[in-house]
C-alpha cells in the first residue's frame, strides 16, 4: 500500500471518528438542555417562589401553532387526496376500493398525521425559533439577561419547547381529521359513490384508540425534539449573521433527521409490542 493510500485511509478513519464524536457531543448538549428545561419547568409548575410564565407560553403557542395551522391544513388535505388517488387503482384491481378509508385512517392516525405536521413545524416554527435566539446571541442580549440574573432557559427556552410540544400534539389531532377529509373529497370527486358512501363509518369502525394514541405519543416526542434542536442551535450561534443562517439551516435538517429516526424507533417498538 502506497503512502497516499495510507494517508487517504487514515483521513477517512479520522473523519469518521470526528463525525461520531460530533454526534455524541451534540446528543450530550441536547441532553443537558433537556435536563435544564425539565428542571425549570418543574420549579415553575410546583408550588414555590418561581412562577411559570403562562403568558409567554400562550404567546409562543399562538406563534408556533395557530399561525402554522393554515399550512398544516392545506398540506394534510392534499396528502389525503393524493394518497387516495394513488391507492385507488391498485385497490380497485383487487375489488377492495372500500378499504381506502381503512388504509387512510390507520396510516394517517399512526404516521402521516404526526410526521407531516412535524415536517411543517420544523420549517415554520423551528427555523423561526433558531433565528430569533441566534439574533439575540449575536446582539449579546443573552449575556445581558445573565448579567441581570435572568435565566435564559426559564425565560426563553422553556416557553418555546413546551409550546412546540403542546401545539404539535393538537395540530396532529386536526391533521388526522383533515387527512380523512381529503381522502373523502377525493373519493367523492373522482372515484364515485361506491368509494365514499360508507367512508366515515368505515374510518370510525376500523381505526382504534391505539392508532390515535400512538400517533399523539410520537407527535409529543417530535415536538420536544424540534423545540430542543431549535433552541440549542439558536443559543450556540457563532459568527454573526452567517452563524444565524447556519443555525437556521441546521435546525431544519436536524429536526427532519430526528423526526424520521425517532419515528423508525417508534415503529419498531410498536411492531414489537403489537401496538
What's the arrangement of secondary structure elements?
Elements: H1 3-45, H2 54-66, H3 69-93, H4 100-138, H5 141-147, H6 152-191, H7 193-196, H8 199-206, H9 209-235, H10 240-272
Helix pairs in contact: 1-6, 2-6, 3-4, 3-6, 4-6, 4-8, 4-9, 4-10, 6-9, 9-10
How would you characterize this protein structure?
- The chain is mainly alpha-helical and 275 residues long.
- It is built from ten helices and no strands.
- 87% of the residues lie in helices and 0% in strands.
- Helix 4 packs across helix 8 (199-206).
- The longest helix is centred in the first third of the chain and has 43 residues, at 3-45.
- The mean pLDDT is 86.
Summarize the model shown.
The protein is mainly α and 275 residues long.
List keywords for this structure.
275 residues; mainly alpha; 87% helix; 2 domains
What is the H/E string?
HHHHHHHHHH
Radius of gyration: 22 Å
Largest sheet: none
Number of domains: 2
Q: In percent, how much strand structure appears in the residues? A: under 5%
List segments where confidence is low: pLDDT < 50 over at least 5 consecutive residues.
none
State the helical fraction.
Answer: over 70%
Count up the helices: 10
Shape: globular
User: Based on DSSP secondary structure assignment, what is the total number of beta strands?
Assistant: 0
Rounded average pLDDT: 86
Amino acid at each position: 500500500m502506497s503512502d497516499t493510500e495510507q494517508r487517504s485511509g487514515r483521513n477517512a478513519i479520522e473523519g469518521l471518528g470526528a463525525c461520531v464524536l460530533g454526534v455524541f457531543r451534540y446528543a450530550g448538549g441536547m441532553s443537558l438542555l433537556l435536563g435544564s428545561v425539565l428542571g425549570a419547568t418543574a420549579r415553575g409548575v410546583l408550588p414555590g417562589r418561581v412562577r411559570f410564565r403562562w403568558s409567554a407560553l400562550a404567546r409562543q403557542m399562538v406563534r408556533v401553532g395557530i399561525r402554522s395551522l393554515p399550512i398544516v391544513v392545506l398540506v394534510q388535505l392534499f396528502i389525503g387526496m393524493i394518497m387516495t388517488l394513488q391507492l385507488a387503482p391498485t385497490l380497485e384491481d383487487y375489488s377492495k376500493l372500500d378499504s381506502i378509508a381503512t388504509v387512510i385512517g390507520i396510516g394517517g392516525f399512526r404516521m402521516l398525521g404526526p410526521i407531516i405536521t412535524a415536517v411543517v413545524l420544523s420549517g415554520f416554527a423551528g427555523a423561526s425559533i433558531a433565528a430569533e435566539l441566534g439574533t439575540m446571541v449575536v446582539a449579546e442580549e443573552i449575556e445581558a439577561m445573565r448579567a441581570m440574573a435572568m435565566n435564559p432557559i426559564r425565560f426563553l427556552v422553556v416557553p418555546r419547547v413546551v409550546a412546540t410540544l403542546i401545539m404539535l400534539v393538537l395540530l396532529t389531532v386536526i391533521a388526522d381529521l383533515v387527512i380523512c377529509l381529503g381522502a373523502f373529497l377525493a373519493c367523492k370527486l373522482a372515484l364515485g359513490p361506491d368509494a365514499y358512501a360508507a367512508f366515515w363509518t368505515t374510518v370510525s369502525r376500523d381505526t382504534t384508540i391505539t392508532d390515535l394514541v400512538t400517533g399523539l405519543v410520537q407527535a409529543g416526542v417530535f415536538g420536544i425534539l424540534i423545540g430542543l434542536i431549535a433552541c440549542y442551535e439558536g443559543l450556540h450561534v457563532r459568527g454573526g449573521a452567517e452563524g444565524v443562517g447556519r443555525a437556521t439551516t441546521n435546525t431544519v435538517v436536524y429536526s427532519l433527521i430526528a423526526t424520521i429516526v425517532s419515528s423508525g424507533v417508534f415503529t419498531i417498538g410498536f411492531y414489537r409490542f403489537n401496538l
